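Thread: 1,3-dihydroxyacetonephosphate complex, take 2
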Amino acid sequence: METTTLEPPAINRLGSSVADCLEVRPMRPPEITGRLQREVLELKKKRNAVILAHNYQTPEIQDVADFVGDSLGLSYQASKTFADVILFCGVHFMAETAKIVNPTKKVLIPDINAGCSLADSCDADEVAEYRAKHPDTYIIAYINCTARVKALTDIVCTSGNAVRVVEQAPKDRPILFLPDENLGQWVMEKTHRPMELWHGACHTHLVFTSETLQRLRLQHPDAPVVAHPECVRSVRLLADHVCSTEGMVKFCRENPSKTIIVVTESGMLHRLRKEVPGKTFIPGPSKSCACNDCGFMKMNTLEKVHHALETLTPEVMVEEEIRKRALLPIQRMLEIR
Ligand code: 13P
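Output below.
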């Protein structure tokens, strides 16, 4: 029997340039990528669809999207679209949020199994139990949780508005912030508002450590560091600025430095290179790679985007009773500016 030995890729090793990682990722001839992208744009028109893509999607998906942004920007876009079909290129809770605000529209996701470690860390039954025991507590849900969990909470937030949401929380009620402990800690530091924190974390941001970042800072002493608040505190302390992925675009545009270290998922680099030309963006490294991908986000591929628009599957559904209850905390968030 013929066997094939799979060599570990020469890319994705610490020391390789991330330009290599991102450029090699599609693993298909560029002319096929171009054809797939053209067909996706034609299908999009035929289906009267809008493509919303999170900043962590692959460059080739970002390039066919109508809107690329952070969780907050995408929520606004989803709430105001006139399209019949929303193809949400992100992870499941994001597409689910789009469905909650658009019950009559078809909401598709390229890969229905694109989950989230934060959403997995927060079980709806446990939140229901907490709610029953603490009826007076104001529960703030980071958008990275399931519709079932959102339905049990008072207000939703994203990393882009978490500080504002907590600042506007009723002063006379205790707060539970779920499910991201690191984001919750950061918001407490910024607002000085005590909160009980759920013990969840984003596995993608946990791989950035102060050791790997310090090494990189020594190599680029003049480069400022911008980090996502889902990073652990020791990493956030090494950053010059902590913000959502949308905030990173603003920071990189306004900061005069020519080289900037960006500590978040590697998909972010494509958007920065496109929208802030002339600067060098260095990704935060993990222990084994010069950059870091979210395995769930990268389950979406251009082929799956094509397939979703062709077949109008897989569709994201939310039970109506849950949807109605989850809508309220999302609407409260969307009203906060
Ligand atoms: P934002 O989209 O709020 O920047 O958060 C990124 C993220 O980690 C999504 O899970």
